[in-house]
Amino acid sequence: MSRRLLGLLGLCAALAGCALMREEGSLTPLRDPAQIRLADDLRLARDGWPEARWWSRYQDPQLDQLIEMAFAHAPSIAIARSHIEQARAQADTVKSLTGVQVELTALVNRQHVSANGFLGPFAENQPALGLTGPWYTQGIVGLGGAYQLDLWGRQRDQVDAALGVRNARQAEAAWIELEVASGVAQLYFQLQTAQQLLAELQQMSSIAGEAVAAHQARVDRGLEAEPLKQLAQSNKALIDRQVVALQSQAQQLREAMRALIGVGAEVSLPLSPRPLPERTYGVPQTLGYELLARRADLQAMRWLVQASYSNIDAAKAAFYPSFDIKAFFGADALHMGDLWDHDSRQMNLIPGMSLPIFDGGRLNAELANARSLSNGLVEQYNQAVLDAVRDVAVAGSRLQGLKSEERLQQQRIDNLRFNRDSAEAHYRRGLLDRVSALEANLPLLAEQSGLALLQGQRLAGEVALIKALGGGYRSSEDATASR
């Protein structure tokens, strides 16, 4: 009875002397989704959230093909997918450690026993006593198993953290796919805009060339002064310089597209000139929780925050006693010839407990580190939420302004078209010379180029808004990150 009492007192003393957990600092709260809203002065069409294949709404087979090529070849997407596989393997590894571990053990130990060691008698050669020293060939074969009891949830928390990282990597891959798709779309529309501008500038260059020839003919006949011809040549040189610049820009955009998609010069890209689409994108009625669920980057951050909370819980559980059970069943013999004898059977059942008592502050340091990492992730998440709302607001206000600019630009084009038509009518009636009638086309073509440029900017703004709204992503799992 006294031995039991002494054992109980020893256990109490050990528990009293175990490492003490320090509750230092507080966790940073997550931003309230109720605060996620747009300014009231943003007035765009309210047509809901983007669909999964948002680029299909432009009804451009070339754009569809380019994005599919990017999904198949883009290096950034391949890297993101490898990160998913790595995180999945890590989660499977952590999860596998929570079950029963069983392994087959087999070894042969050829040893020379020391006569001066604690096995000294076995160094003698006395067959009658079963001693055949000093050399022995020991054999062991059997099944060993171990199981750790997860009384405090440490293993469960470690699994949850690993699964959170895996889910975060999946969301990050979806965000990278959106970045690639939106990048391809923006480059494609920039290239189509450049090709449309190039066609109009080439038409302007042709008209300017005819005007220069007409001025030259007048100068040759003495009907016009030389400066007018020089001015016409200067205008043509300016237009030709813009043509060269646009041709260079178009080539740069093609190479940028190749790099983004991940293909070389041997692959032909579908980049034939096509009219710019007219459809304008809008914004949803509300943001709030929807924005959190539809932005893959925010979902990734929420999963990482959730994983950090699980890491904190696992760090806390490390302060408590851990219990495990080990077992062995097999055969153990000092001589290999006796290994399969009935008397060589061996069975072990070893319940165990370990409790940290003095660790030099290691556990508290690990807990503090887990809290610090979690707070840093929460701060990043809160900032990412603000950035996401800003992205939507900036892209929306940009589109709103571009719509007004396009409307005013179209009015200017209508006025110049009237002037051009009037000049042509005067020329047909002999009231205006041919040079003046030709040059009346130049301001109209220039303003049409300006309209094409605005349309290209609008399309780029639409793609930016689609990206800011998540591009059709929808979280399939609820990352409930709240503390």
From TrEMBL:
Source organism, top-level taxon: Bacteria
GO-annotated cellular components: cell outer membrane
PROSITE patterns for this protein: PROKAR_LIPOPROTEIN
InterPro entries for this protein: MdtP/NodT-like, OMP_efflux
Keyword Zinc: no
Pfam families with a match to the protein in the record: OEP
Molecular function via GO: efflux transmembrane transporter activity
Membrane-topology descriptor: Lipid-anchor
Subcellular location: Cell outer membrane
UniProt KW keywords: Cell outer membrane, Lipoprotein, Membrane, Palmitate, Signal, Transmembrane, Transmembrane beta strand
Role according to the record: Could be involved in resistance to puromycin, acriflavine and tetraphenylarsonium chloride.
Family, per entry: Belongs to the outer membrane factor (OMF) (TC 1.B.17) family.
Record's protein name: Multidrug resistance outer membrane protein MdtP
Natural source organism: Pseudomonas knackmussii (strain DSM 6978 / CCUG 54928 / LMG 23759 / B13)
